[in-house]
Design brief:
The protein is of the alpha/beta class. The protein is about 35% helix and about 20% strand. It contains ten helices and ten strands. It starts with about 20 loop residues before the first strand and ends in a 6-residue tail after the last helix.
Length: about 280
C-alpha cells in the first residue's frame, strides 16, 4: 500500500513550487459554544492548483469555506492569502483581496438580466466617482462601456454572450450555475471557491462543468478549491484532495491515493461490522 501523506503537510504541483501559496491555513479551528466544528485544519493551495475538499455530510466543509471567506472568524489558528495574514480582514476585504465564492444554493439576482448579474460582480472595478455618475459625464459613460465589454467578454468564455439580455431566473439550472461562476470571476479573484457546483446537475451538465473548471484555471491562471459530493467530478479534475471528518482533516493526497485510503473508506462507509 502507498505511504500516506501527513494531512498537515502541503502537497504542491511542480509548477507552483517556489511560489507563495495562494492560501495557507495553519491549525485553523472554530468553536460554537462548547461544540468544536473545525479543529487543527491545515491546508496549502498553490497558485494554479485545482484542489478538492470532500467528506461526509456534517464534516465541516461549508464551515471551512465560511472561515476562508471571513464569514466566520476562527477561534484559533491563522490564515494567509498570498502570504498576507488575513486576521484583520472582513468578508468584503477578503473578496477584494482575491477570494471569490459560489454557493450550494444558487444566489443570483433572478429578476436582473444575465449581463446585469455580471456587472454586479464588476462594480468594484469601476473607477468613476459619484459626481461623474450623477452628472453623467463622458468619463462615466466611458467606464460604463468598458465594464459592459468586460462583462460580455467573461460571458463569451462560457458561451453565454447571446443570453446577456435574458433574466437570470429564466435560465436552465446548469446555465444559472455557470452564470454564478462568471459573476464570481468578475471580481478578479486569485482563488475561486466552489461550494458543491455539481449539485442538481445531470451527467451532461456535470461533464461540461468539469471542462469549465479546467478552463477557468488555464484561462485566468488562478487556483480553484471545491467542495463536492460527486466523486466522478472530484477524481477527474482535482490534483489534490483533502478529506474532512468531524471537523478534522484525516487524509490528503492525489485522487488515487484518497480512493484507496482506509481512513477515507471508513469515514464514508463505517467500520466493518457496523450497521
Amino acid at each position: 500500500m502507498a505511504q500516506r501523506h501527513d494531512p498537515r503537510l502541503p502537497i504542491l504541483a511542480e509548477r507552483d513550487l517556489g511560489k507563495t501559496p495562494v492560501i495557507e491555513c495553519k491549525k485553523l479551528g472554530i468553536d460554537f459554544g462548547g461544540l468544536t466544528a473545525v479543529d487543527d485544519f491545515n491546508i496549502t493551495v498553490g497558485q494554479t492548483e485545482i484542489a478538492g475538499l470532500i467528506g461526509p455530510n456534517g464534516a465541516g466543509k461549508t464551515t471551512i469555506f465560511n472561515l476562508l471567506t471571513k464569514v466566520y472568524l476562527p477561534t484559533r489558528g491563522s490564515m494567509y492569502l498570498n502570504g498576507s495574514d488575513t486576521r484583520d480582514m472582513n468578508t468584503i476585504a477578503a473578496n477584494r483581496a482575491g477570494i471569490a465564492r459560489t454557493f450550494q444554493n444558487i444566489r443570483l439576482f433572478k429578476e436582473l438580466t444575465v449581463l446585469e448579474n455580471v456587472l454586479v460582480g464588476l462594480h468594484n472595478k469601476m473607477s468613476y466617482k459619484l459626481p461623474e455618475a450623477v452628472l453623467r459625464l463622458p468619463s462615466y459613460w466611458r467606464e460604463e462601456r468598458k465594464t459592459r465589454e468586460k462583462a460580455l467578454d467573461l460571458l463569451s468564455i462560457f458561451d453565454m454572450q447571446d443570453l446577456h439580455g435574458a433574466k437570470a431566473g429564466s435560465l436552465p439550472y446548469g446555465s444559472q450555475r455557470r452564470l454564478e461562476i462568471v459573476r464570481a470571476l468578475a471580481t478578479d479573484p486569485i482563488i475561486l471557491l466552489l461550494d458543491e457546483p455539481a449539485a442538481g446537475m445531470n451527467p451532461s451538465e456535470t461533464g461540461e462543468l468539469m471542462k469549465n473548471i479546467i478552463k477557468i484555471r488555464d484561462t485566468f491562471h488562478i487556483a480553484v478549491l471545491l467542495i463536492e459530493h460527486d466523486m466522478h467530478l472530484v477524481m477527474n479534475v482535482c490534483e489534490v484532495v483533502g478529506v474532512l471528518n468531524y471537523g478534522r482533516l484525516i487524509a490528503k493526497g492525489s485522487p488515487k491515493e484518497i480512493q484507496d485510503d482506509p481512513l477515507v473508506i471508513e469515514a464514508y462507509l463505517g467500520k466493518k461490522g457496523e450497521t
